[in-house]
Amino acid sequence: xxxxxxxxVYKRIVLKLSGEALRERGARExxxxxxxxxxxxxxxxxxxxxxxxxxxxxxxNIWRGLSAAHRGMxxxxxxxxxxxxxxxxxxxxKSALSQIGLETRVQTAIEMQNVAEPFILGRAIRHLEVGRVxxxxxxxxxxxxxxxxxxxxxxxEIRADVILKATKVDGVYDSDPNTNPNAKRFERVTFxxxxxQRLQVxxxxxxSLCMDNKIPIVVFDMNTPTNFCDIVLGRKVxxxxxx
Length: 243
What we know:
Blueprint: E1 12-17, H1 33-47, E2 52-57, H2 65-70, H3 75-99, E3 104-108, E4 117-118, H4 121-129, E5 133-137, H5 147-158, E6 162-167, E7 172-173, E8 185-186, E9 188-190, H6 191-196, H7 204-213, E10 217-221, H8 227-232, E11 239-242
């Protein structure tokens, strides 16, 4: 199956990528140009369907603020360092997208004039409407908030139809499938069920934003090349978290 011949079920999406998604498993380098290129190609396939595509990217392949705070660093400082790591990843993805012909803008929540545009909602929406990919970096611009929360916030602001959360597993399970061979995968789960069962989908702040603004989340495995496109075309992939 391919991206051809079907109509997309979403008009505007937020793709949530972890920083780890840019890193080759077991490799020493923090960013794999080959993997970034592959992700860019998948984004191009979806963009070619006419889907307005934005990306929120993490920085965990370079720096994890919470982990550093647990080791004694000031949490606010550690979180700002993590925000800067997301900028590095966003620029890497922008470069790959530009090289394959996609006009892309990086918008940052922390102003850095020579590196990226400041996040301005109206401008972001206009970029999407005229066919540009928008990459949101630097989190929310505030410490103590995850990039999951950033994805929920930006999706709410730009009125996205869905958040597509790319992970290393093929959906949401009732326990860790890497350690429990009998772990059960959900095809669909409500926000309330996910919270009550403490399913590791997003943090509670991100969940609250999605619940309040009725934005569904699809959790899927980005390592399967066709998954991103299949979700946008309405095919059953991963786990849907919704009302």
